[in-house]
């Protein structure tokens, strides 16, 4: 007999690093989710930009069943067919020549940052070890990745953290020029900052970052954990910037919820992770790679990618219509189906109020920091779900506005 659990069970048995809502989803189909009480929700959150093909996608369900009857795991003392097929597709579809598989975005970034330092060590010596990243960036939760990330709150209480890391403002090329030097081994950036507030890179800024990296013989690392695998309307966002990185990281949507991450690199750079320099017990396991291969096959099609851009317009239109009535957003921005609505000063620091009320209305949304409501739904969310979602969002916004007036 299955033991019954509730939200209170979380407080009894889980480490308190999360504060989940009272909702416990038990079933999902497409872009709709149902909780234990049978209440239905529309999903504009996508598990934080993960379920790019929605819940229980029939093709992926079949892939899981088929692979589960063959191989789940092999040690990395041997390889497997799904991993090789996936790596071949990723290299054929991108700038990269080589792939390293792991389980998450944080692990992919950890590998990228280690590779950057190792490459510089091999080619220029140990003194070329500094990494430059950007304020408000987010790259994971390991000690190394929170150090490269530009949000000090994630490092507090965990010091001393790894050194040799500097930060400047995103889209500020003059600050970067002042910070980068011949000791810099890598510049790390998101093509569109996710957790930092859904802030796209200026095209000229991205171009100049590439030029500065070349000038100082530093690697350019693109963190596409959130922006990649179709999220912005191309397979990877770098394709829209006209800039090619040396290293790129991917996760989130790559497995549609099954844990998988990847670091992609050019052949010359990848060579520095020689035998024994890095590893991952579960990285590249056949189950994860079989699922990820199917995800890539489905997403990297004109139908899906063009559909992302069409749905982007629907989200912007929906948010604009609500804003014209309630005047709660000062900016609506983003790329593809990674969209942010920055709240006005009247709601500054309180974007979560919109999330809370939306959940009550049967809609999942996200925040990106304290001032931005974030939307990262399935790339194939039906248009009728978008329309109904905005009906529910408007009810939530009306409630937040009413509460703010009476506060």
From TrEMBL:
Broad class of the protein's primary localization: cytoplasm
Binding-site list for N(2)-acetyl-L-ornithine: 141, 280
One annotated GO biological process: L-arginine biosynthetic process
GO molecular function terms attached to this record: identical protein binding; N2-acetyl-L-ornithine:2-oxoglutarate 5-aminotransferase activity; pyridoxal phosphate binding
EC number: 2.6.1.11
Entry's transmembrane regions: none
CDD domains in alphabetical order: OAT_like (cd00610)
Cofactor note: Binds 1 pyridoxal phosphate per subunit.
Pfam families per UniProt: Aminotran_3
Keywords: Amino-acid biosynthesis, Aminotransferase, Arginine biosynthesis, Cytoplasm, Pyridoxal phosphate, Transferase
Binding partners and assembly: Homodimer.
Protein name, entry field: Acetylornithine aminotransferase
């Amino acid at each position: 007999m299955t033991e019954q659990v509730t939200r209170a069970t979380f407080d009894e048995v889980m480490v308190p690093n999360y504060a989940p809502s009272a909702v416990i989803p038990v079933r999902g189909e497409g872009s709709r989710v149902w909780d234990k009480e049978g209440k239905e929700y529309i999903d504009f959150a996508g598990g934080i930009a993960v379920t790019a093909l929605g819940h229980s996608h029939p093709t992926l369900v079949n892939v899981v069943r088929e692979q589960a009857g063959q191989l789940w795991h092999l040690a990395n003392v041997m390889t497997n067919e799904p991993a090789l097929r996936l790596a071949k597709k990723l290299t054929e579809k991108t700038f990269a020549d080589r792939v390293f598989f792991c389980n998450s975005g944080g692990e992919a970034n950890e590998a990228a940052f280690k590779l950057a330092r190792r490459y510089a060590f091999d080619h220029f010596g140990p003194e070329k070890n500094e990494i430059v990243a950007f304020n408000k960036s987010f790259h994971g939760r390991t000690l190394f990745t929170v150090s490269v990330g530009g949000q000090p709150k994630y490092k507090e209480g965990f010091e001393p953290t790894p050194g040799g890391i500097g930060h400047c403002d995103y889209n500020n090329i003059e600050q970067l020029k002042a910070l980068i030097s011949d000791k810099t081994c890598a510049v790390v950036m998101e093509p569109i900052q996710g957790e930092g507030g859904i802030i796209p890179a200026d095209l000229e800024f991205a171009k100049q970052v590439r030029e500065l990296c070349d000038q100082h013989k530093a690697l350019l690392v693109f963190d596409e954990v959130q922006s990649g695998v179709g999220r912005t309307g191309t397979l990877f966002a770098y394709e829209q910037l006209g800039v090619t990185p040396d290293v790129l990281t991917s996760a989130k949507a790559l497995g549609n919820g099954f844990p998988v991450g990847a670091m992609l690199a050019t052949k010359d750079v990848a060579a520095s992770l020689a035998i024994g320099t890095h590893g991952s017990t579960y990285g590249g396991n056949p189950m994860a790679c079989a699922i990820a291969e199917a995800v890539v096959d489905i997403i990297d099609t004109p139908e899906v990618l063009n559909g992302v851009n069409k749905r982007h317009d629907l989200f912007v239109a929906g948010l604009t219509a609500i804003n014209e009535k309630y005047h709660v957003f000062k900016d609506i921005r983003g790329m593809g189906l990674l969209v942010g609505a920055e709240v006005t000063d009247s709601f500054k620091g309180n974007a979560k109020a919109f999330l809370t009320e939306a959940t009550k209305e049967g809609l999942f949304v996200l925040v990106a920091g304290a001032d931005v409501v974030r939307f990262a739904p399935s790339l194939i969310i039906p248009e009728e779900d978008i329309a109904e979602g905005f009906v529910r969002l408007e009810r939530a916004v009306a409630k937040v506005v009413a509460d703010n007036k009476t506060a």
